[in-house]
Amino acid sequence: MNRALTVARLQFVAWRSVVGWPWGILALSFLINLALFSAMNEADDFEPTTGGLMSIYVVMFVASVNAITQDFPFALGLGVSRRSFYLGNVLNYLGQAISYAAVLYLLAVIEEATDGWGVNLTFFGIPFLLVDNPVLRFLGFAIPFLLLGFIGIAIALVFKRWGVNGLLMLSTVALAGIGGLVVLATWRGWWSAIGGWFVDQPGWALLVGWPALLTLLLAGLSYLTIRRATP
Amino acid sequence: MEDGRPIFLQIAELLENSILDGTLAEEDQVPSTNELAAYHRINPATAAKGVNKLVDDGTLYKKRGIGMFVSSGARAKLRGRRRDEFARQYVRPLLTEARKLGIEPAELKSMIDTWEESR
Amino acid sequence: MSAVVSVTDLTKRYQGVTALDRVSFSLAEHRIHGLLGRNGAGKTTLMQILTAQNFATSGEVSVFGQHPYENEQVLSRISFIKESQTYPSNLRVTHVLRAARLVYSDWDEEFAQRLVDVFQLPLGRNVRKLSRGMLSTLGIVVGLASRAPLTFFDEPYLGLDAVARQLFYDHLLADYTEHPRTIVLSTHLIDEVSDLIEHVLLIDQGRLLLDVEAEALRGQVVTVSGPVAAVDEFARTGSELHRASLGGTARATVRGDFGPAAHDRARSLGLDLEASSLQDIVVRLTTSHNGRAAGSAAAADKEAVR
Predict the structure, then answer these.
(1) Cβ-based neighbour number of residue C78 at 10 Å
(2) Alpha-carbon distance A165 to A47, whole Å?
């Protein structure tokens, strides 16, 4: 565990770039939207979500791919075990997800209090998830960080262990699987049932519950994969 | 260091030469193995082996905690040993080469005398 | 002396290629070992397996008495500097050194800074903007300042000129003298390191050809030249590795236990005798047409040397 903490610190030696990229890009996206909304200055009833919030999650995804393709060979070169590297990475993600979600939550609260920064801009708020429970709202910000992080790790690990062919194989299987299910659902006329299931799911399950489950599954599979990966 | 001969022997020889030509006087302190290793850019274990060879044959002796010193009487002893080696190393090949060229031992002796005079 | 590394019947096969073929040896503590061999001989694969970065197909590996795979106790005591090491693209030189300081418990920061000065490494530069030589230097600084009880240097000087290489050898030797540790130096620049290494491992095509003290090897291989009959007679005292003839004269490279007496004998036979350097020996052994024979001779010899 000590060693895992060392790895987490190792990934922060260049903390300026680790923290700078996600927040820099988010800030840029926010400022552009703010400028646009100020210019439009329309007080319509509809509250558009800009989607700019996605940028910080995308950066997180890219960073997690880099963690495997770049940090992994570096850490192993410094005599770190695969287990410690992986645990350190998980600690790192948890830390980032919690602290980043806290900041986003705070910004969302400010956004509401200031009527969308005075120009009716909904940048940090997630309109389709208006849960009142603050814990769930917080998790709604935090879990997607972890999910995207582990999707990045899983994809990068497939590449690391099985190369381009492994990646192609994975996408082929995924496409065939999804395509097959779509065909099956259409043929059997399941779509209304599926739609009904989604509608019946509470918001927290869609944004927190199921992603958390998927995250855990990916985390477990990634751990098994990294144990036999070579840098 | 010279190729093809154990380095520790070469280190021992270098120290012997210093003792023979007086650079290292009797009861003088000998450079440490670490100094020898750094100077000659060789492995310290090898340097130590060279020094130990001279300790074993009594040329050097160890003062605990201080270092290695040249034994008294080492110079005379070395000279005696080197004289024996001289015959093997120089006189024998000289005779072999002379025989190849058909130079008789008597002729060889007079050649040496002539060279000595003209020096 | 206790063995830091011991390897038994280690074999590694990649899709049909045998990179290591039943290799067995052990490395004694606190020595500088030379891991020699041509490019692609299997040196890097061997070190990758010893550091658990790669997996053996079969055979046993023990480092500090344990298997290194996922073994923090073992891995934290190893520093493996390899030519192909990559660094995360967001790091500067100073970040890499800070990372190494976090990981290695014996890290000497003052020494690291001294080496940075000596090699004129630009601390603020991004690793992706370093020249090949600077990247090598960065590896050397990490490898030396980590003071790991077991340190591997795998061709650590790509892109370095002769002056920088000599600086590396001098600092390696000085620091090793003050802080003895087990070092494995993998290289094909044999002449440059032959005086530094105490023990020689020679690998060729995945097989271990030599496992012997460097000093024992010196003078063990000689080249004699002269009349064929005399060369024949001398060659009988050892195993012949190579021969060239011209009319009635011949030149033969012979391996055996040659001391001063052998030199005298060659002289009395009217032969010229020249002792081979470590580099010559390695070249002879790895290009020998009957590679297998040379290999088994080496194996037999290994026993004799011990």
Answers:
(1) 25
(2) 45
Quote the CA–CA distance of A60 and C11 in Å, as a whole number: 41
- Give the pair of three-digit tokens for residue B88: 């093997």
- Give yes or no for B37 touching C (CB within 8 A): yes
Specify whether C155 is located in the same domain as C280: no
ipTM, two decimals, is 0.88
pLDDT at C248 > cutoff 70: yes
Q: How many CB atoms lie within 10 A of CB A62?
A: 13
User: By the 8 A CB rule, do B78 and B59 touch?
Assistant: yes
Phi, psi torsion values for A78, nearest 5 degrees = -95, 15
- Classified as helix, coil or strand, C257 is coil
The region that residue C136 occupies, defined by phi over 0 for left and psi between -120 and 50 for alpha, beta otherwise, is alpha
Cβ within 8 Å of C, B 62-91: 88
Question: If you measure CA to CA, which chain A residue comes closest to C142?
Answer: A78
Are the C-beta atoms of C11 and C21 separated by less than 8 Å? yes
Distance CA A102, CA A142 (A): 8
Tell me how far apart the alpha carbons of residues C289 and C253 are, in angstroms, rounded to a whole number: 13
Using DSSP's 3-state secondary structure scheme, residue C21 falls into: strand
Using a CB-CB cut-off of 8 Å, the residues of chain A touching C55 are 228, 230
Domain that holds residue C28: 3-214
C295-304 pLDDT tens trace: 444 433 433 3
A67 closest CA partner among A82, A47, A49, A45: A82
Contacts of A230 in chain C (CB under 8 A): 48, 53-55
Out of C185, C214, C243, pick the residue that ends a domain.
Answer: C214
For C14-67, write each residue's pLDDT tens digit.
888 999 999 999 999 999 999 999 888 999 999 999 999 999 999 999 999 999
Q: Is C68 left (phi over 0), alpha (psi -120 to 50) or beta?
A: alpha
Question: Touching check for A12 and chain C: CB below 8 Å?
Answer: no
* C179, C214, C249 - which closes a domain: C214
Residue C203 and residue C87 share a domain: yes
Considering the domain architecture, whether residues C165 and C96 belong to the same structural domain is answered as yes
Helix axes B7-20, B44-56, angle to 10 degrees: 50
Domain B7-72 has CATH 1.10.10.10: yes
The tens digit of pLDDT for each residue in A101-152 reads 999 999 999 988 888 888 888 888 876 556 678 888 898 899 999 999 999 9
